[in-house]
Amino acid sequence: MSFEDEWAGIRSAAQEDRAAMRLAHVDVDGDNGPSQDGDLRVGQTDLAAVGDAAFTLHTRLAAEGGHANVSTREAGTAMAAQFALGAALTTVADKWREQVDTLLDACAHISNHLEYTRKTHADDEQWIATRFKYEQLDKGFEERTGH
Question: What is the pTM of this model?
Answer without folding.
Answer: 0.54
